[in-house]
């Protein structure tokens, strides 16, 4: 559960407030419940599908469900989907680093450091990843809480008025991007075989709870951002959460002002987990897609490939931001919602069950 | 006719002696080696253990003399039991208490005056063992190897004529340090006894705290040449048998393949799960109460001869942050102290790195008032912040190391002069800013707060690369470095137990004894990962309350 929260949280806290505010304006806080509902639906479908084949990953069973040719094709879409999110994360991360903290450091250096950490973490394996994550996640949520609390006195409720001024349309538009981020919990499709068999039945509950916690945290940020800066500013600021952190100002305690260092600590950690998770899922998926026994030999070559892709896929931060608002959500929603739902539907319809002897976790 | 009888005895005595001398000569002739050969001849226990004792006393003495040919202090005392039967006592001078040997072994045997005659050969050993010598512990031995071992450990081995077994007694009489307060882990409240170099003392110190027949020990002898006795202590029923088997397997792997084991750190490195890690992978302690507490949690303790430091495995990272006094002081206070320690851990790790990162890359993070101070202080310093920090840090480590190695009065002089030079003169000369000195000083003191020295060393070490990272990539570099350390630590295991046990994999009940310490009546369970078999430490309703109340 910890896991699902942190992978989504890391990227979502960056852009969600501004993207949502751009469409929904002062009604951004209404977009989030919608997005969470969509996220919960996607999560539910993904977990159901994963539970249907508890000992296998999505790449392993799609050929049986959809037939060898289409199955392999869809399998490859999943491989690409995971790697795509991975290099999107890389670029997103280095853009913020570059814009906010290390203006003169070449972006490639920032990417390489983060990727090197991810590669190290991957060689250590999934178990270590989960352990590191547990250590960091709760302090991350604590830090966000702190940032929001310090600024709470400046939240002006009138910024949220009038409610639903432009009708429900913008609210729904604003929900699309966060909804797709919530859907990133579909990474469970690759991780299910590694979850203890005794824990597997509880995964539906765990993942939905993760979506709920995530919703609360994001809602907190959106309310704080729109309330403090107003919808106009929140939408135009590139990284509202960072702005929130920088905005903290307590005259009596100057040392607690400007919490952006705290923000950076947990955000770097969060991005690292996210990158590692998707990178792991992508590497494992590719290894299984190619019928390799071990994914480790693929780690380094793939790290180089996604680093290069992250560098060349987008021209600058403006393009990245419009991409993450307009293209990215639909692209990944297609995989998360449509493909996953399709596989589940076909599997149920054709009555395909896991191969004997492959059930249970490791 | 008493006079005639005495003459008879005398004659027989001289005959016996002459006969023994002849046998001895014959045996020695047989096994004599040239001086060159003797120098090159080496013996190892695995080979000596294969050699049984012969029934001939002369032969056994000859073999022992050959094995110990140039050995310091080796001695064979030959004598006659009850004036009739040849026997010999083998020992090393200086390792045994000679008064005890003569009073408890030689005198009762030579003056054996019971009515029934002493039998020759068969039955003699039992008579000697049960009615002869008066030492407490007596064991029978069958091979040369066992005898050699006993003799070198300060025992006296009795060899008897026409007997292929020997009797071994313990009369060790070498000097050992008396039990003192442990230097590396002193406490305000709590027992003041520490282990000494004597293994027997150490075992008794633990046993006095755990008066249970379930306390078990397994002995290993490690090192081809040192043959160091290593005692593996655990409590039956609490220990995880898998951990125990794994530890024994690792110890067996080294046993005869290493030359010597002089300190527990040899073992620590040899049984580590991750040999390349800079982090301590066995908890070392001088305190028997700490060992007892660890055993009660289901851990395993390893005690060695010749060092006061015992090892505890498996353990979690948090154990390095706990001191035994935490459990003897009020739990509110202990919790506060633990929080203080964790904060100092962070300061000791990233203090200089954060200073470098902020002054170099992120001045905007400082509040204005502080920023002006920092800029003003750094005015005129001829180095970039990272070089400045590394230099002062280096000088600090220099002082610390010099202070430890030098004789105490000189060491104090060095630290005073050094402190003056670095603290005052360097600042006045404009070589460094006062802020940097303050940071280094705080960092240094913070690293002393970490109770486990082995952990403090690791902190000192990884502080330097982190500082450099901070100088290259700013806070991002520091965070990346810290994350790399966290990843590394999360991957560590001791005897298969995760290093971050308690936090991750998370067990809420284990957190009662982590950054906080709950009162004893609330700590119902043993650490979760450790004792899957016997979870409950005490009954749940121990919280004190008035009689009949709720």
Principal-axes shape call of chain B:
elongated
Oligomer classification: heterodimer
Helix-strand makeup class of chain A: mainly alpha
Helix content of chain A: over 70%
What is the CATH third-level topology name of chain A?
A: Amino acid/polyamine transporter I
For the largest sheet of chain B, list the strands in their spatial order. Answer: 1-2-4-5-3
- What is the number of strand segments of chain B? 12
* Domain tally of chain B: 3
Q: Kindly provide the radius of gyration of chain B, computed on alpha-carbon positions and rounded to a whole number of angstroms.
A: 32 Å
User: Tally the helices of chain B: what do you get?
Assistant: 17
**What is the mean pLDDT of chain B?**
84
Low-confidence stretches of chain B: none
User: What series of H and E elements makes up the topology of chain B?
Assistant: HHHHEEHHEHEEHEEHHEHEEHHHHHHEE
Order of helices and strands of chain A: HHHHHHHHHHHHHH
Structural class of chain B: alpha+beta
What is the CATH architecture descriptor of chain A? Up-down Bundle
Helicity level of chain B, as a percent range? 40-55%
Low-confidence stretches of chain A: 357-362
Q: Could you name the CATH homologous superfamily of chain A? A: Amino acid/polyamine transporter I
Sum up the overall morphology of chain A in one term.
globular
Report the count of strand segments of chain A. Answer: 0
